[in-house]
Amino acid sequence: MTSLICTLQHHQDDVNWCAFAAKLLATCSGDKTLRIYDARDFSELPFSPLTGHGYTVHCCCFSACGQFLASCSTDATTVIWSMVSGEIEAVLEHPGRSPVRICAFSPDSLHLVSGASDGTLALWDFPSRQLRRTGAVNDTTMVACSFSPCSQMFMTGSTYGDLRLWDLRMNQLHAEKNAHDLGVSCCTFAPSILSGGQVVQFRVASCGQDSLLKIWAINKFSSGAYKMKLLHMLTGQSAPVLSCAYSSDGQLLVSGYVTACAFSPTSPLIATGSMDKTVNIWRLEDGCSGNEESAQTSIKGRASGGRSKLLVSDWSEDDVSQWLLEEGLEGLVDRFKGNNIDGTELLSLTKETLASELHVESVGLRSKLLRKVEELKSDSVCLGIPDEFLCPITRELMKEPVIAADGYSYEKEAIESWISTKNRSSPMTNLPLLTTLLTPNHTLKMAIGRWKTSH
After folding, report:
1. How many CA within 13 A on the CB side of residue 388?
2. Angle at the Cα of 432 (from 172 to 114), degrees rounded to 5?
3. Which of 128, 259, 284, 320 shows the smallest number of beta carbons within 10 Å?
4. What is the model's pLDDT at position 330?
């Protein structure tokens, strides 16, 4: 359930994009302006509107801390604005001087991507405001872009209908042609990262002129290969789907025949923009969580009494033994008990550790066990436990999440210990960390707090 709480009517032309920061809402329009609002009461800030573009403003996005706003326009520029003063900090001229249709910050705010009507892409080093690399897809217009939650790759979508995955060197990691056969309208990464064994999985939502909303899985293998597959195709809308957005915890996805939509990262609010020149602010009511709660009850009811804990990482050695018996893996019980395998260690098992440390010689048995472990992790997601709330190292709910140089969030104590003993390598990518600086992830900590309160 949602309820309309206010309508903003300040723009004089189509509203093309909406973007939330923790305390601000930004909107942009065909009237060449951006409007900035206080996200608490939606009063317009004194320095709003922002006027600096010569033509239609197509997109706007906040840096992670909300200190800067980027906007792009038909005037072939991406402008960086200070959210302290409303002044222009920098003007980034797109290579080729083609109209810029889309721009996106990386979650760590180290990079900014802009995409243009001639199919070109520009990757900017944001701290220095310098152009780092360029790329292109011929005979199309770039209209959609989203960074992965790890900040190491990004997805683009075009009017040609394809989705393409890029790394920071502008290498194409994957191309999904005809993802939407009438053209892509929007694409967005889910904030969660699912990891297990030798695979890291990301989720992406895309929508298009074909009236479809699609959910994709992107699997990154330890070999460096990527594979993208369609998980869900949602057909409930009878008109072109122009925009889509995930909530900050990844549990909700909004889409519609509106030109823009965005979730607030700190409040149960959605902003939608339209061709009627208005921006509507909607409040999510408590009733929205009813289905999620039912799913929790259903799944938890399948667990035996002492093992019906929320997190598998909480399981004791006896809980693991009971689970093995229920899954028809009784032959492993003594071996697991002898090696003191509890829930945390169960989740971290790999083919290598099963073979070398637990001496499970049967390839089939190892594969069956790992499939069952992956099902446990999937159940955790279905229970409504956002995977990004769990530290990738400990697989436990984070108390003091911090962002490392690889763009991932970890429990502060766990990543500090890792850095001190693992020669500054990333736990997720195995690549060297460029710096040991850890940044508190206040947004994630707040989201975890809200989730804990509601559960």
Report:
1. 28
2. 35
3. 128
4. 85
